[in-house]
């Protein structure tokens, strides 16, 4: 998310991932400023929580990952335009390399994280769409075929519910994890396989 007002329906929770690279030797001061900023910022309207993933010391990385959740896009926009946030940007400018890289995250991206692994910078939306179609299309044909003998005589709305539940269960716990594992093995989804 390069700007603060990315699409998002007002009233739906939204999340923003911010990546910041701290300059060598500035880690301790950055940590102190981050702690102070978090304690003040969590009091602002519409905050649903915040997670910070610090770089692993042995990795050589100096990149901090800050995931902030808001109750809706309006609260997100108010926060990123607030004097509190603007002051934070000024405070850490001398401690970090460049500006934070921000990205709006949607629920669909959670399918692209394998269980037990750290989050990934999500692939481009067109890749997510292609993988989702590759998973949904065969599943949407298989589930009705499989359930048809068990559903004959049930009301149409109940049949539709059972098919929808079957598709969601298969996609969430079988199809999407397998597709992501296969495609990520070939580095098709994640260019360079960059993990966050």
Structural commentary:
The chain is α+β, with helices and mostly antiparallel strands. It folds into two domains: 14-105, 2-Layer Sandwich (Alpha-Beta Plaits); 125-193, no CATH class. The chain has helices spanning 27-41, 73-80, 83-93, 125-151, 156-185; strands spanning 14-21, 47-53, 63-70, 101-105. It has a four-stranded antiparallel β-sheet with strand order 2-3-1-4. Helix 4 crosses helix 5 (156-185). The two termini are 15 Å apart. The model is unreliable at 1-8, 110-120 and 190-196 (pLDDT under 50).
Judging by the overall fold, what is the CATH architecture of the largest domain? 2-Layer Sandwich
Structurally, the number of domains stands at 2
> From the structure provided, what is the oligomeric state, counting identical versus distinct chains?
single chain
Biggest sheet features: 4 strands, antiparallel
> What's the CATH class of the largest domain, please?
Alpha Beta
Cα radius of gyration in angstroms: 21 Å
Query: Could you give the distance between the termini?
Result: 15 Å
